[in-house]
Amino acid sequence: MSTFESLTITCKDGYALNGRFYASTILHKNHPILICPATGITQNFYQAFAEWLSTQGYDVLSFDFRGIGRSLHGPVSKSKASIVDWGQLDIPAAIDTLLCKTQAAQVILLGHSAGGQLLGIVPNHEKVAKVVAVSGSTGHVKGLKGKTKLLAPVMFNVIFPLARITKGYGPTQAIGMGENLPKDVAKQWAEFCSKPGYVMNAIGKTVFEDYHAKIDCPITVLWSSDDEIATEANVKDLLRLYPKAKTEMIELKPQSYNHKAIGHMLMFKKSHQNLWPVMAQQLTI
User: Fold this and answer.
1) Which of 66, 20, 76, 67 has its CA nearest to residue 44?
2) CA gap 84, 81 in Å, rounded
């Protein structure tokens, strides 16, 4: 028996996204939860966590960004998707779909990595009651740590530009970084992380409506001390973009939860489900 209902999320430009709605199995909480995925990560990755949230009283919607997973229509080399599209078109449509489904007034946006970094370009941002950004940061290359600090410049400055010509997409699957990326997603990822501020680097170029200074909902970032991408410096770089919002940083240390590592990806894994109540504590206003 399926634990979710498959949905089609229709964006303003007519693009169809694939989503999954997990209905609460007990008395409903106040706000439904929208899970916005990380770059190149499909909604399958969040299924166990979404199922668990539904047992905690939450209605939950997950989805694949355009060009990724079940929201990729045709070869990835033909996809015209971009990160800007994700923020301006995909997230707004997912918000409205979840509100229509639940008849709620606002959602709580639980974003993983890139999924929690784009609210400043979301037109209907006022429908978000709170952001919980898991491993959320700007990913600025100078703020990275460890192997990622060495790999990222090679990926951004060598692999992506060459692959754009030879393959027509960003070959992230080959290096264990999720699904292959549409070429403009890969290009913008490199551009946004090359300087502080992430999507702010698109303002006035490909983005002409900037809502960062208007957003006043609470924003909490949960990040791990061993995360090589969402480092303390890069988390602070993200939160500074929202001057009106009440912001909070919560650092998780692997040893405090009997884990050898948490990093950028493991908070949603069943192996780390003792972290799920820690995340759920933040899903209140």
Assistant:
1) 20
2) 8
Spatial contact of 43 and 72, defined as CB atoms under 8 Å apart: no
Q: Record the pTM.
A: 0.97
DSSP code of residue 167? T
Tokens of 53: 């949230």
22: β partners: 60
Structure tokens at 81: 């998707």
The closest alpha carbon to 66, from 201, 187, 185, 210, belongs to 185
Instruction: Establish how many alpha carbons lie within 13 A of residue 110's alpha carbon, considering only the half-sphere containing its beta carbon.
Output: 25
Of all helices (H) and strands (E), which one includes residue 237?
helix 232-239
User: What is the DSSP-derived secondary structure letter of residue 224?
Assistant: E
| Nearest to 119, CA basis, from 207, 32, 204 | 207
How far is 85 from 147, CA to CA, in rounded Å? 30
Count of alpha carbons within 13 angstroms of residue 206, beta-carbon side:
17
Domain 5-139+209-280 - what CATH class? alpha beta
CB–CB of 57/27 below 8 Å? yes
Please, are residues 132 and 220 in contact by the beta-carbon 8 Å criterion?
yes
Query: What is the residue extent of each domain of the chain?
Result: 5-139+209-280
Give the 3-state secondary structure of residue 203.
strand
DSSP classification of residue 8: E
Q: What does each of the 285 residues of the chain score in pLDDT, given as a tens digit? A: 579 999 999 999 999 999 999 999 887 767 999 999 999 999 999 999 999 999 999 999 999 999 999 999 999 999 999 999 999 999 999 999 999 999 999 999 999 999 999 999 999 999 999 999 999 999 999 999 999 999 999 999 999 999 999 999 999 998 888 999 999 999 999 999 999 999 999 999 999 999 999 999 999 999 999 999 999 999 999 999 999 999 999 999 999 999 999 999 999 999 999 999 999 999 998
Residue 252's H or E segment, with its range, is: strand 247-252
